[in-house]
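tl;dr need the bound structure. longer version: we got a ligand (guanosine-5'-triphosphate) that a collaborator sent over and nobodys looked at where it sits. i said id run it. heres the input, straight from their email, havent touched it
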Amino acid sequence: MRIVAAKDLLKANDQLAAENRHFLAARQIFCVNLVGSPGCGKTTLLEGLFRHLDGRLSPGVIEGDIAGQIDAERMERLGVPVVQINTEGMCHLDANMIAAAWDGFTDADLDLLIIENVGNLVCTAGYDLGEHLRVVVLSVAEGDDKLIKYPAIFQRSNALVITKCDLLAHTNFAVPRARGDMRRLAPEAQVFEVASLHDQGMASLADWLVRQRQSFLSATGDN
Ligand SMILES: Nc1nc2c(ncn2[C@@H]2O[C@H](COP(=O)(O)OP(=O)(O)OP(=O)(O)O)[C@@H](O)[C@H]2O)c(=O)[nH]1
Ligand SMILES: [Mg+2]
């Protein structure tokens, strides 16, 4: 009997993720892994963000969902090149899926690839996809205790976007608490407060992303 340990599978994923990262960097494509629980507002955030890029970047999107293509259709309506991955039950994307999805962008000239991961605060934390930046989304409707209860995903993120801030008055979500917990878990991470549906806070997020890509190009020596 052959037994494969989970840690060996994760090692294989990390190896593939490193290859993805290298592959994308060689093409000057900045890759962002967008994570957060189901319905926290990831796709709505992307819709708002793309409006604010004002042509400064050419994005493409990989949509990860257990089933269906609703989010990919939302991207298509914006004219954004998109590939949908259906995991058929798996609660996260992995590096192998990203490598396979890349072929779907053959005609697109991208400089930003955003991967909207499957909605999940647990499984997505453990899988490097080969991204250059990880952004975690938390909506005010989910509660401000989530950083303490699901620390790994926040610890491993470069930015926290607090979404649905238009609903703050209807919740007991304390933004200072979430900011404080994020500072402890990921001291270097940026924190943004947005209401994507109402186009609030999106410009600074878009500007930050453009600057992040610029730093990425400088670091890879290709700016
Ligand atoms: N009030 C309010 N609602 C929002 C905001 N952003 C998103 N929503 C709503 O929240 C619901 C889920 O939004 P999505 O963007 O589809 O969430 P998601 O994280 O992409 O969901 P999954 O891909 O299924 O995990 C939708 O009904 C949105 O209209 C916001 O800023 N304010
Ligand atoms: Mg979505």
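gonna send this back to them w/ a short note. The pocket of magnesium ion (ligand 2) is lined by residues 42-43, 71, 116 (CB under 6 Å).
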